[in-house]
Amino acid sequence: MSTFNGQGRKLCCNFTEDWRTPFMEYLAQGILPIDRTLVHQLKKLIVRYFLQNGILFRRGYNEDPLRCLGPRKAREVVKEVHSDDYGSHPRKKRLYKQLLLLEYYWPTMKNDFE
Q1: CA–CA gap between residue 44 and residue 2 (Å, rounded)
Q2: Residue 56: strand pairing partners
Q3: Which of 30, 46, 102, 107 is the most buried (most CB within 10 A)?
Q4: 47 and 75 in a common domain
């Protein structure tokens, strides 16, 4: 049993460790979780997500598409942005804003940098 987190909500389901899987399966194939509560939660969250060329995106606050990253890719991007900041280490809030400007998203990113 694994969890995925959408907008601060943890949902348990029988999927992989990648939080994007339920969203992608529903958008691409109409596959829903078995649990009715999870179905309701997924359908409530899915309105902000879309697939483009097999890549999951979330609509940002200004409707900008944010590329949804899995856990491993999110760690890679954080390291890259952190090291590319001209030798200085950006504060957590600044790092979070930089990642949004680069149009990246994962559900825990705001909490990861507070």
Answers
A1: 20
A2: 51
A3: 107
A4: no
Token pair, residue 55, equals 């890549």
Which residue range is the domain that position 81 belongs to? 68-112
| Angle separating helix axes 92-101 and 71-83, nearest 10 degrees | 110
Q: What pLDDT digit, counting tens, does each position of 83-101 carry?
A: 765 455 567 888 888 899 9
3-state secondary structure of 5: strand
State the distance between the two ends of the chain, measured CA to CA, in whole angstroms.
28
Contact by Cβ (8 Å): 96, 57: no
Q: Is 5 exposed, middle or buried (0-12, 13-18, 19+ CB in 10 A)?
A: middle
- pTM here is 0.77
State the amino acid at position 2 in one-letter form: S
